[in-house]
Amino acid sequence: MTIRTGRLTRTLAAVAAIGLCSAAAEARDIVWARYGDIDTLDPHKATSTLSLQTWSLIFDTLLATDKDGNPVPNMAESWTVNDAGTEYTFKLHDGITCHDGSPLDATDVKYTVDRAFDDADPSVTKASWGPITSAEVVDPLTVKLTLETPFVALVPFLADSFSSILCDSNEGAEGFGTTTAIGSGPWKLVSWTKGDKITLARNDDYTNFGKLAENKGAPYMDGLVITVVPEPQTRLAALKTGEVDIAEPPFDDVAMLKDSGELDIVVAENTGQNVFWEFAVHRPPFNDKRARQAVGHATDAAAAINLIYGDLSLPEACPVSRGVFGNDQDVCLEYRTNYDPEKARALLAELGYGPDKPLETAMLVWTGGNRQKLAEVFQAQLAEVGIKADIEMMDIGTMNARVRQENETAEGKGSMDMMTWSWYDPDILYALWHSPGAYRGYTTPELDAMLEKTRVLTDPDERKAAVQAVFKVLLEDGIHIPLYTPGWEWVFAVRPEVEGFHVAPFVYPVFNDVKIAED
Amino acid sequence: MAELSGAVPDYDHEIVPPGRRAHFWRRVAFTPNGAFGLAVVIVLIASAGLADLITPYSPIKMGVGPRFLPPNGAYLLGTDEFGRDLFTRIVYGSRLTLMIGAIAVGISLTVGILVGLIAAYRGGWTETILMRGTDVLFSFTETLIALACVAVLGPSLKNAMIAVGIAGIPFYARTCYSAALVERSKPYFEATIAAGAGPLRLLFLHLLPNVLPTMIVVATLGLSAAILAAAGLSFLGLGAQPPDPEWGAMLSGARDYFNRAPYLMVIPGLAIAVTVLGFNLLGDAIRTALDPREGSE
Amino acid sequence: MTDTPVLDVRDLRIAFGAGRKAREVVHGVSFTVQRGEVVAIVGESGSGKSVTALSLMGLLPRGHGAVTGGSAHFEETDLITLAPEPLRRIRGARIGMVFQEPMTSLNPVLTIGRQMTEGMMAHGRVSERQAREAAIAMLERVGIDDGRRRLGQYPHEFSGGMRQRVMIAMAMMMKPALLIADEPTTALDVTIQAQILDLMRTLIAETGTSLILITHDMGVVAETADRVVVMHDGRVVEEADAKTLFAMPGQAYTRALLAAVPRLDGAVAGAVARPAGREPVVRIDSVSKTFGGRTGTRALDGVSLDVMAGEVVALVGESGSGKSTLGRAVARLLDVDDGAILVDGHNMAEMRGATLRRARARVQMIFQDPYASLDPRFSIGRTVAEPILIHGGGGRREASERAAALLQRVGLDRPMARRFPHEFSGGQRQRVAIARALAAGPKIIVADEPTSALDVTIQAQVLDLLAELRDEQGIALLFISHDLAVVRQISSRVAVMRSGRLLETGPTEAVLGSPRHAYTRALLSAAPVPDPAKRGRVRVTVAAGSYPDGPLVEAAPGHWVAS
Amino acid sequence: MWRFLGGRIAMGALTIFVTTIAVTLLIHLVPGDPVQIMYAQSQGTTPEQLEEIRHNLGLDQPIYIQYVRFVGRLFQGDLGYTIRGHQPVLDVILQRLPNTIALAVAAMAVAILIGLPIGFFAAYKRGTMVDTGLMVVAIAGVSVPHFWLGLVLLLFFAVELGWLPVSGTGPLNLVLPAVTLGLSNAAIVARMTRSSMMDIMRQDFVRTAEAKGLPKSVILSRHVLRAGLIPVITMMGLQFAFMMGGAIVVENIFAWNGVGRMAVEAIFQRDYPVIQGFILTFAVVVVFVSILLDGVYALVDPRIRRS
Question: How many independent structural domains does chain A possess?
Answer without folding.
Answer: 3
